[in-house]
Each structure stands twice: as structure tokens, then as C-alpha cells.
Design a protein that fits this description.
CATH architecture of the largest domain: 3-Layer(aba) Sandwich
Helix content: 25-40%
Oligomer: single chain
CATH superfamily of the largest domain: Alpha/Beta hydrolase fold, catalytic domain
CATH topology of the largest domain: Rossmann fold
Radius of gyration: 18 Å
Distance between the termini: 28 Å
Strand order of the largest sheet: 1-2-4-3-5-6-7-8
Order of helices and strands: EEEEHEHEHHHHHHHHEHEH
């Protein structure tokens, strides 16, 4: 079973001014002459980590990481202003142009898979291959599953803790209820809501309890940007049209793609990946039998490192 490659340092860092008051943290590692690959992190609002470099052979890939608007090391922190899906897709293009890259691969997970699929549908000529993990299709059923009715039946104890700060009369729309608190003026209420939101997501993220994953979700810096930006996006249906990704899946034809998804993913259930695979001609679907949502689970890590090895053949 493959594990993450040895840790490496980046060889370049950029603070890219994309206008509208936002600066993006962008870094490069691996080989400057390697295959360009953009790592698109989840959330929205999670940010990147040094381990995100470690899926790729640094002698063969030019590894590009960036923190999306409002999170990680990008500035301003946790900002919702001029922060929509359209802005993030434009940011990805700005990064490509700034780095002088003609075509690149995309490696996106969860919300990162959403962005990667949308970008590829918008700019298919720019993408040489797509590695998508933990697919999130942004359907109404996907929101209801995690934040209203579905995962709560698998984790009823965690769920009770999650909703404990929301009055009964507001529990019919938990995304709206959390958004109100996370975007309000009361700092203590914001921090409390961020902790509950991030903890719920972290508890649902792995098949077996994992302290390291939960600690990352509940880190104060990450929890605030994740919860605030996620609720901002989710209350606006991620600023895309209903069923847009599946509707436009025909635009992915001819683009090599590997889909990796845990069978017991309780954040983004497997049907997200299954229906995408059916709609995406030529894609490969790898269902990891002993994994949930987190990319840190051994079976998923193995499949992703292997996918990065396989996709080398498609770069032209």
C-alpha cells in the first residue's frame, strides 16, 4: 500500500493580488520543469497544508498549492466580500497565467472537486487531466444529508452536540441558523458556532475516529474560516445553478479523469461519485472499501498517490 511521499519544501512562494481586496497565497514545489498540477483544497475555507505536496513525485511534477480567498495564508482572513465560485474560478486562471502555464492537471477533493470540475467544464483546453476525490456535486440532497437529515442518524450523539446551540425554532434550516451567528457582531457567538460547525464536520470525516483530522478541523484559525465561508457558500447554493456539474458533464469528454471516493463517506455520500462517473465518458471510478471522507485514510491515500503516478502518462 502506497503512503504519502517524503516531505518536501516549496521552492517559491507568491502573494498574488487578484484585485477586489484579495491576495492569494500560492506556492510551488517539486520540479520547476515538471508536469504542472494544481492542488485544489476543500471547504470552502479549509486552506492547504504541507502534506498536500506529498501525493506527487517531486521529480516529475511541478506542484502548485494555493489558499482560496479568505482562508489559510490568503488575505484578508475569513472575508466574504467578493468571495464566490466565479471569483475562485477566475483566481485559478489568474494563477495559471501568473505562473506562465499553458496547460495543467487538477487535483481536487470535496469542495476542491467541485471547483476542479467547474473549471474544467469552463476551460477544457487548459486541463490535461483531472484527479477528483470525495466528489461534492452541490445538489440540494447533498446539503440536506449533512446538515439536516441523513448523517444525523449515523452520528446521533455528535449531532446533538452540533445542534445544541441552535434553538428549536431555527433547526428547520441549520445552515441559515449557523450563518446568522457566524456573520453576526457577537465575537463569542461566532467562535462558539465555528467550533460546533467544524467539530461536526471533522467527526463525520473518517471511518474510524482520528484525532489528527479532528484537530485540524477544530484548530481555531481553520474552524473560523471553514465555518464562515462554508455557510456563506452553502446558503447561496455555492453560487452555481442546480445540477450544473452533471448537466455539463458532457464537456469533460476526452479529458482523462480518475475519481477516488470512500464507500463510507458520510460527508459526501458515494452516490456523488457514482453518478458523476456515469455522466463523465471515459472516467475511472475507484471506490475505497474501508474509507470515509478524509484523504488521510490509508486506502484513500494509496489510491491518490497511485492516481498521480498513473496520470503522468496523460500529460502532453
Amino acid at each position: 500500500m502506497k503512503v504519502l511521499l517524503p516531505a518536501i519544501k516549496n521552492y517559491a512562494q507568491h502573494m498574488l493580488d487578484v484585485g477586489q481586496g484579495h491576495q492569494l497565497y500560492v506556492e510551488e514545489s517539486g520540479s520547476p520543469q515538471g508536469i504542472p498540477v494544481l492542488f485544489v483544497h476543500g471547504g470552502p475555507g479549509a486552506g492547504c497544508t504541507p502534506d498536500d505536496r506529498r501525493y506527487f513525485d517531486p521529480e516529475r511534477y511541478r506542484i502548485i498549492l494555493f489558499d482560496q480567498r479568505g482562508c489559510g495564508r490568503s488575505m484578508p482572513y475569513a472575508s466574504l466580500q467578493n468571495n464566490t465560485t466565479k471569483h475562485l474560478l477566475e483566481d485559478m486562471e489568474a494563477i495559471r497565467e501568473h505562473l506562465g502555464i499553458k496547460r495543467w492537471m487538477l487535483f481536487g477533493g470535496s469542495w476542491g472537486s467541485t471547483l476542479s470540475l467547474l473549471y474544467t467544464q469552463l476551460y477544457p483546453e487548459r486541463v490535461t487531466g483531472l484527479m477528483s476525490r470525495r466528489i461534492f456535486l452541490n445538489r440540494g440532497s447533498d446539503y440536506r444529508w449533512l446538515y439536516q437529515e441523513g448523517a444525523n442518524q449515523v452520528f446521533p450523539d455528535y449531532w446533538q452536540e452540533f445542534i445544541s446551540l441552535i434553538p428549536e425554532e431555527e433547526r428547520d434550516n441549520l445552515i441559515k441558523a449557523f450563518y446568522k451567528r457566524l456573520s453576526g457582531e457577537d465575537e463569542l457567538a461566532r467562535m462558539n458556532a465555528a467550533k460546533h460547525w467544524a467539530q461536526w464536520e471533522g467527526q463525520c470525516a473518517t471511518l474510524h475516529p482520528c484525532k489528527a483530522v479532528l484537530d485540524r478541523f477544530t484548530n481555531t484559525h481553520t474552524a473560523m474560516s471553514l465555518s464562515k465561508i462554508e455557510t456563506h457558500y452553502f446558503i447561496n447554493n455555492c453560487f452555481i445553478e442546480p445540477n450544473q456539474i452533471l448537466r455539463d458533464a458532457f464537456k469533460l469528454e476526452g479529458i482523462p479523469g480518475i475519481i477516488v471516493h470512500g464507500r463510507y463517506d458520510m460527508v459526501c455520500p458515494l452516490d456523488n461519485a457514482y453518478v458523476l462517473h456515469q455522466a463523465w465518458p471515459g472516467s475511472e471510478l475507484h471506490v475505497i472499501r474501508d474509507a470515509g471522507h478524509s484523504a488521510a485514510e490509508p486506502g484513500t491515500t494509496d489510491a491518490l498517490v497511485n492516481a498521480a503516478e498513473i496520470m503522468v502518462r496523460y500529460h502532453t
